[in-house]
Amino acid sequence: MFFKTLIFAALLAGINCRYILIDEDYLPELIEHSRVRRQVQVGAGLDNKGNWDLAGKVPLAKSDTNILSATGMATMDPSNKLTSYGAGVALDNINGHGLSLSGRQIPDFGKQLTAAANLNVLNTPDHNLNANAFVTKNMPSIPNVPNFNTYGAGADYMYKNTLGASLGAARTDFLQKTDVSAMGKLNLFKTPSSSLDFGAGATRSFSPFIPKSSWEPAFKFNFMKSF
């Protein structure tokens, strides 16, 4: 039922995409002369703990201002064991805005369904600022553990597509837990079809069950390729 819901959402979005003519967008890499173009994207990320994030995005339908894509993602631990995988749909607009719906399977835990939104607040040749928010329905397969939600928001800023920073926070009421992060970002190289970025910062969790939490360093390399 979980993945049938995702397929149904994708079909509905595909039917409606041809009629959507909002003057907005997401994914600047898909923009050429103020028009959205079809592009397949793949990406990989490696963090300081040795975990890998893999992602892909395949266009399904488009209008002059919007593009509907199928998405896929997976994560692996340092031993290359698959720790999660999933798929979804994303609707991106040429002004930097976007919506997405995705489902994820996590072995030994259960399933997650996430709805997310991105709003481009500022876009000039030198400055780009985005606000984002999400809500995740966690559906554990663990006995006696009920479904629960995690929700959060954040902001991302980039200067001349080279140097940036991000702030984010997420709250899980069921666990009485708040996670916060502050990261910096540096683009190491960029071509019309590929990009390599380095991010570094710190994360921290606040909870009555973690009375002595502290800031933990974090860094990550991200590579993206478009076809």
TrEMBL record:
One GO BP: defense response to bacterium
Keyword Transmembrane helix belongs to the record: no
Gene Ontology CC annotations of this record: extracellular region
Main subcellular localisation: secreted
Signal sequence residues: 1-17
Top-rank taxon: Eukaryota
Sequence ranges assigned to domain Attacin C-terminal in this UniProt record: 107-227
Family matches, as Pfam families: Attacin_C, Attacin_N
Residue ranges of domain Attacin N-terminal in the record: 49-103
Subcellular localization, as worded in the UniProt entry: Secreted
Keywords: Antibiotic, Antimicrobial, Cleavage on pair of basic residues, Immunity, Innate immunity, Secreted, Signal
Family designation: Belongs to the attacin/sarcotoxin-2 family.
Protein name: Attacin
Organism name: Pieris macdunnoughi
